[in-house]
Amino acid sequence: MPSFKMMFKNATDIIESLTDNHKNPLHIGEAMACWTYYSFVSFAIIQVEVGLNTTSDSKLKKSLQDSYEVMKSHQKELSELMRQEGVPLSNTPEDKPESDPHAVPLGTKLTDDEIINTVNINFIAAADMCAASASQSLRTDVAMMFLKFQTDKLSLGLKMKELMQEKGWLKIPPYYQPPGSPDQKG
């Protein structure tokens, strides 16, 4: 079975071949989408840095490091596009210095469960944001960039979900039992 990234690449190749990809200036919605996602990813990076400084779980650290690298690449790609198009960059927070997870006081330290669920919620929000931005973009290059970002987030989210299931950190809503179903108690 082909990988998720290979399927995405094939789909993007087809879409790009169907367009002339004429580069008009960004419309206001595209500029706002870039600015908003740039701001979002800049703050999400800080949350991942805090997670890296807080956890001592090697598998979680690996997932967070993968997330960090993807988010930094998104931030860089957006920064380059925004500068090229004359869109001002939003203010971003300072990077967090590395610290020893064992030196973080327990009252301020996030648990591994809290770290991974917060990062996962950010993946969900980012994937939704990227889908909306891609669908509202008229420029093919901008739409494709947001589709790539969405695919990256979904891919990371799937890997993280496996870790969450393995560690018992996955939050599962109650199962729905329609009225009158044979499994219904009462």
TrEMBL record:
Span list, region Disordered: 86-107
Superkingdom assignment: Bacteria
Gene3D superfamilies: 1.20.1260.10
Annotated protein name in UniProt: DUF3231 family protein
Organism annotation: Lentibacillus cibarius
